[in-house]
UniProtKB/TrEMBL annotation:
Localization, UniProt: Nucleus
Superkingdom of origin: Eukaryota
Protein name (record): XRCC4 protein
XRCC4 N-terminal domain sequence ranges: 17-88
Lineage per the UniProt record: Eukaryota, Metazoa, Chordata, Craniata, Vertebrata
GO terms assigned for molecular function: DNA binding
Pfam family, one: XRCC4
SUPFAM superfamilies in alphabetical order: XRCC4, N-terminal domain
Residues forming coiled coils: 49-76
Record CDD domains: HD_XRCC4_N
Gene name of the record: Xrcc4
InterPro entries: DNA_repair_prot_XRCC4, XRCC4-like_N_sf, XRCC4_N, XRCC4_N_sf
Swiss-Prot/TrEMBL keywords: Coiled coil, DNA damage, DNA repair, Nucleus
Organism: Nyctiprogne leucopyga
UniProt GO BP: double-strand break repair via nonhomologous end joining; immunoglobulin V(D)J recombination; response to X-ray
């Protein structure tokens, strides 16, 4: 299993710091787990392969392109810093 951990500062609260961990088995496109923490609380969830396909369809985006964008936003870290915004609600 592969994992990444990134520090994010959401646009909804730029002074706050959150930590986003993403874990996956073979490829992000086959589904992944997420853990979001503010240092005091943590929230976890999973995203299935079917949910990824459904979201790509909803966005009218090629599935492979959508998975590449997910990789950039969720696991690329410093190389994508400033290119993606996160909002916590």
């Amino acid at each position: 299993m592969e994992k990444t951990l990134n520090r994010i500062h959401p646009v909804s609260d730029p002074e706050a710091t959150y930590f986003l961990q993403v874990s996956w088995e073979k490829d992000l496109g086959t589904g992944f787990g997420v853990t979001l923490s503010d240092g005091q609380c943590a929230w976890t969830g999973t995203v299935s392969e079917a949910e990824i396909s459904r979201e790509a369809d909803d966005m009218e985006m090629n599935r492979e392109k959508y998975v590449e964008e997910l990789k950039k936003a969720l696991i690329a870290g410093e190389e994508s810093a400033g290119k993606y915004n996160f909002a916590i609600s």
